[in-house]
Design brief:
Among the domains are: 201 residues, 3-Layer(aba) Sandwich (Rossmann fold), CATH 3.40.50; 185 residues, Alpha Horseshoe (Serine Threonine Protein Phosphatase 5, Tetratricopeptide repeat), CATH 1.25.40; 60 residues, Arc Repressor Mutant, subunit A (Orthogonal Bundle). It is mainly alpha-helical. The strands form 3 sheets. A 5-stranded parallel beta sheet has the order 2-3-4-1-5, with helices on both faces. Strands 6-8-7 form a 3-stranded antiparallel beta sheet. 52% of the residues are buried.
């Protein structure tokens, strides 16, 4: 019997191996990276990463761990491959270092769901939310990577279970491990349209730090080289041509053909793969057949129990398979030499043979489940389904669903729930066996998908459930579905779609006061309060809190208090909002409910009040608690975003940026509204740091999504930032360009003249000041803004609440439009200090200095400019400081025009009248050369590209009106 050799040296992959080794080197140097290796079946992905792993194990300070996803059908046990990878880390480093890296007892208890050896009896988190596992793994990897480089390899992502896919998507975007290299492999041909991995891959490929390696088929020369390695002799040209034609350049097929026995190599590629199987003796073929049903890998105990024959025959069959290269063995059990071989053998089985083997394996797996190993339930259900035993499959899926939820595999739980719904009408008494009705299960599936951030799938599940829900009865279930739909609509579609769901919840529940209805009624009333105008919103918010107190649930009451705080914040009743938020914080010690989420709102309110240092301290304190509880994503991410905003408003940009980047990574894809908010913060930080073009790129660069529909504040703030950028450019440009930028700023500021701005003046506060600044700058550029924009400024400013936190914005806007005197600007600066962003305070000092100069108080103006430069916060708004420096140098727009000499002014007037250089020279009795020198100087001072632009500028010196 011939065996198939394996080449001692990998052929045709030097470049790809070099790229992987570069990624390892980067990881060792402290630059973490993720590499996606993709290629068709048999192309050599495993051989490539095996070579990488072998080399990396020899590198001092590098720890290697790997796992492979296995094909368990549409269900799959959650985190199967991740468990193996983590166990390899424990084997390589020891249990104690991994336990220490977990940090808090709560995180260690979470990780014990995947590594039982870590269990010390600590109470684990509630069985919901995949965030727990992602955060626990992230914490361990980050801490372990401090002292050593980690190379983690996860193969065959096309077979990854839902929980593993969700985990990878999260980790690739948020992992901060300093010395880490993550290598992932998959088959692109198995990830077709609709495959759940497609969206994950698309997300990964967009991320910075993720690279892609494509493995291509071998060339003729490379096939010849592989044959030479395999056979130890120089292959003839005819042999190379034949193998190349038959193998199509796929290394695995080249290997199979090289070890074939002549006629074995005839037929299709599937025949080529099966040739190795056909050469096996009878016992070996029987082992291979059973193993093909079990999966790509099987442990010896399971194989022994499933074997239907003499033990001696099984052992002999295993030896023969190993000798022939059909199987490989390690401490975890046995695996096929290649997945293609397993697939070919499985497809070659007779249907009855396949069914019987699945039934045998299902019984064994079920016995393990019944004995307490519930992690085997998914495997049992897979085999029961393949054996066409729907009844037992249903029961196993019920157990697998409970196991998935206890392992925080929310997405897997949702998929298992969908599988139960598919089987619902094929089993007896499904509701009794599951403990809930089909509609209740649909509610749970939709809620699980929502919690997992699978918004599209969640909305689909809601729509399908509502479509089959009875027209009468099942009020709680239908209300739950509308509540989920309302949350999804508010986050991803727009607030205009909320009322329909809100009205349905209210209609369905009426005045019910039972335990199931009250939380839903409180949530609906809270949504109604937030959407209503004052004072109606305030009354509803009070009613909401009163109703929540009757529910007897800390979670429900803390949610109601948070919502009432939102209403009070909108009314500028900040102290009342803070009182509610602090009450919610003390009420909820679970670290997962609304009380902890109240911190994000508390930071926001303190930020609105200008209490930035207090906001930062409160946020970071709770952030530490969230991290210890393993909830940085769920609770810490919104807090981080609000902390970043407070730091930006305080002018502490360098401190803000790490928090901003972390919040963006944690919140990526979860909520478009948070995405909008983070975009605004980053653009604001960049703009007032003086990086104007970068700020504009963040707001309207390629790939930046539009603002979320129906979010007035987000739309106003985006417009404000773009207005600020254009006015900043105007203030730093020569006169011709300055007029163009000022005109653009006025056009963008027109958003203030909308009904939405008058209806929600507090949401338009920043745009109000930006528009007013644009008006002031336009006037300096000899432009007159439309009267309607000026009127809108006055109207919105008058409508702003007169709380000190809002008054600074209104007074600044009024002063800019009115060209207020220096005394007014001094009052504004003093009142704004401690109540408004540092940039606004410093800008008020700048306008004070400019007003002093305009009033002819030159010495006072110089002192004011000097005081601004010496201001302890001057470095916290570099853009304002830059404007001040340009003003004192006489190069800014606020000097009311370019510093032309008297003769240059005469030349410009004649140039604008259409005279040529010789005609100007004759009129002024100067030489043509002198005229040319003057014209060049004028063009440079004006920033004009040619005489036409200079003439147009001169023509507009009578304050040309500019449309807004």
């Amino acid at each position: 019997m011939s065996t198939v050799p394996t080449a001692p040296r990998m052929v045709g992959r030097d470049r790809e191996l070099g790229a992987l080794l570069d990624a390892v080197a980067s990881g060792r140097a402290g630059e973490p990276s993720t590499v996606l290796v993709r290629g068709e079946a048999g192309i050599g992905k495993t051989r490539l990463v095996t070579d990488l792993v072998d080399r990396s194990r020899e590198m001092p300070g590098t720890v290697v761990a790997s796992g492979s996803c296995v094909d368990l059908g549409p269900i799959g046990a959650p985190f199967t491959s991740v468990r193996r990878l983590l166990h390899e880390l424990v084997e390589a480093l020891g249990l104690e270092p991994v336990a220490a890296a977990a940090g808090s007892p709560r995180v260690r208890a979470t990780l014990a769901r995947l590594i039982p050896e870590l269990d010390e009896g600590e109470e684990p988190p509630p069985a919901s939310g995949a965030d727990y596992v992602a955060e626990a793994i992230e914490r361990v990897l980050e801490n372990l990577s401090v002292d050593q480089h980690l190379l983690l390899v996860l193969e065959d992502l096309h077979w990854a279970d839902d929980a593993t896919r969700a985990l990878l998507r999260t980790l690739a975007g948020t992992l901060r491990a300093s010395r880490l290299t993550l290598v992932l492999t998959y088959r692109p041909e198995d990830v077709g349209r609709g495959h759940p991995l497609r969206e994950v891959l698309a997300d990964l490929e967009r991320r910075r730090g993720v690279s892609l390696i494509d493995l291509h088929r071998l060339t003729r020369e490379q096939v010849a080289s592989q044959l030479r390695e395999l056979q130890g002799t120089e292959p003839g040209a005819a042999v190379v041509a034949s193998v190349l034609r038959r193998s199509e350049g796929v290394p695995f097929f080249v290997e199979e053909l090289a070890g074939g026995d002549g006629d074995d190599a005839a037929g299709t590629l599937r025949d080529i793969v099966l040739a190795r199987y056909d050469r096996l003796p009878g016992a070996a073929r029987a082992v291979a057949r059973l193993m093909s049903v079990a999966g790509e890998r099987i442990d010896d105990a399971l194989l022994r129990e499933a074997w239907d024959g003499e033990e001696a025959q099984r052992l002999e069959g295993l030896r023969q398979c190993l000798d022939a290269g059909a199987l490989t063995a390690d401490e975890a059990g046995f695996a096929f030499h290649h997945a293609l071989l397993r697939e070919a053998v499985y497809q070659d089985l007779l249907p009855s043979e396949r069914t019987e083997a699945h039934r045998r394996l299902a019984r064994i797996e079920q016995d393990r489940v019944d004995a307490g190993d519930t992690a085997r339930a998914a495997a049992a259900s897979h085999h029961w389904l393949a054996a066409q035993d729907v009844d037992r499959a249903f029961a196993a899926i019920v157990t697998a669903l409970d196991e998935a939820r206890s392992a925080y595999a929310v997405v897997s739980a949702a998929r298992l729930g969908e599988q139960l719904l598919d089987l619902w009408d094929r089993v007896d008494s499904p509701a009794a066996r599951l403990g809930m009705s089909a509609l209740e299960l649909r509610c749970q599936v939709a809620e699980d998908l929502y919690d997992a951030g699978e918004s599209v799938s969640a909305m689909r599940a809601v729509d399908e459930a509502l479509a089959v829900a009875p027209a009468t009865g099942a009020a709680i279930e239908r209300a739950r579905l509308h509540a989920t739909a309302m949350a999804l609509t508010a986050e991803h579609v727009g607030r205009s779609g909320v009322p329909a769901h809100l009205e349905e919840i209210e209609r369905l529940l009426g005045d019910r006061t039972d335990a199931a209805a009250l939380p839903l009624r409180v949530g609906a009333l809270a949504a109604r309060a937030v959407r209503s105008d004052s004072p109606r919103g305030a009354v509803l918010a009070d009613d909401c809190v009163a109703l929540a107190r009757t529910a007897g649930s800390p979670e429900t009451l803390s949610m109601a208090l948070c919502k009432r705080a939102v209403v009070n914040r909108k009314r500028s009743r900040y102290e009342d909002a803070i009182a509610d938020l602090r009450a919610a914080l003390t009420m909820d010690a679970g670290a997962v409910l609304w009380g902890r989420c109240a911190t994000a709102n508390l930071v926001d309110v303190l930020n609105q009040m200008g209490r930035y240092d207090e906001a930062v301290a409160a946020g970071l304190a709770t952030l530490d608690e969230a991290i210890e509880a393993g909830l940085e994503r769920r609770i810490g991410a919104p807090i981080l975003a609000n902390v970043a905003e407070a730091l930006v408003n305080a002018g502490r940009t360098d401190e803000a940026m790490p928090h901003l980047r972390r919040a963006r990574a944690l919140l990526a894809g979860d909520s478009p509204r948070w995405g909008d908010f983070l975009v605004e913060i980053e653009a604001t930080a960049l703009l007032w740091d003086g990086r104007i073009d970068e700020a504009s790129e963040v707001i309207e660069g390629p790939g930046v999504p539009p603002a979320v529909e129906d979010d007035a504040e987000a739309a106003f703030n985006r417009a404000a930032i773009l207005v600020e950028a254009e006015t900043a450019r105007a203030m730093e440009s020569p006169p011709v360009a300055a007029r163009a930028h000022a005109t653009s700023a006025l056009g963008r500021a027109s958003a203030l003249s909308t009904e939405e701005a008058r209806a929600e003046p507090d949401a338009a506060a920043r745009l109000l000041v930006a528009a007013s600044r644009a008006i002031a700058v336009a006037r300096s550029a000899r432009l007159d803004p439309d009267d309607s924009l000026v009127a809108s400024v006055h109207e919105v400013a008058a409508a702003l609440p007169r709380h000190p936190a809002m008054a600074a914005w209104a007074r600044t806007a009024d002063a800019l439009v009115a060209e207020a005197p220096a005394e007014t600007w001094g009052d504004i600066a003093r009142a704004a200090d401690g109540n408004a962003p540092v940039r606004l305070v410093l800008e008020a000092r700048l306008w004070e200095a400019l007003a002093l100069r305009r009033e002819g108080r030159r010495a006072d103006a110089r002192e004011a400019f000097d005081a601004l430069a010496r201001h302890p916060d001057a470095g916290r708004a570099p853009l304002v400081l830059r404007w001040a420096e340009r003003e004192t140098a006489g190069t800014a727009l606020q000097t009311a025009g370019p510093s032309l000499t008297a003769r240059e002014g005469e030349v410009l007037a004649l140039l604008a009248a259409g005279l040529t250089n010789p005609e100007i020279g004759d009129r002024l009795v100067i030489s043509r050369k002198t005229v040319s020198v003057h014209v060049s100087a004028i063009l440079a001072k004006l920033g004009a590209a040619n005489r036409t632009e200079a003439a147009a500028y001169y023509a507009g010196l009578d304050r040309t009106p500019a449309s807004a």
